[in-house]
Write a structure and sequence with these properties.
Layout (H helix, E strand, L loop, with lengths): L10 E7 L6 E7 L10 E10 L5 E5 L5 E6 L11 H15 L3 E9 L2 E10 L1
Antiparallel strand pairs: 1-2, 3-4, 3-6, 4-5, 6-7
Amino acid sequence: TSKTGKHGHAKAHIVALDIFTGKKYEDLCPTSHNLDVPFVKRTEYQCLSADEDTGEVSLLMEDGSLKDDLNLPTVVNVGEPTEEDKKCTSELLAALGDGKTVTVVVQSACGEEKIIQVKATD
């Protein structure tokens, strides 16, 4: 926070990281204003298949239905995939190739979803 000026209000300097791209954002807001806070949800799904060429991933939901609207972490709409995205994608494809049972952790917020972690078991 900063002190009030001759005519102004105290301000808060807010620094945040985008949880999907890792991009850094900064904002300077009056402390009297309210800010929106995203609701972040983490869900685990069993991964049935992943296509390296198209980037499509098939996940099994808890109710037994299929979730086909997610892509591999390296398929991004904006910018370049991060090192973490590349690592996650290679782990996922390697574990599926070895015939292991693969569980993925999907993080969702603000209408976006992304696979952020891979867990493989024999």
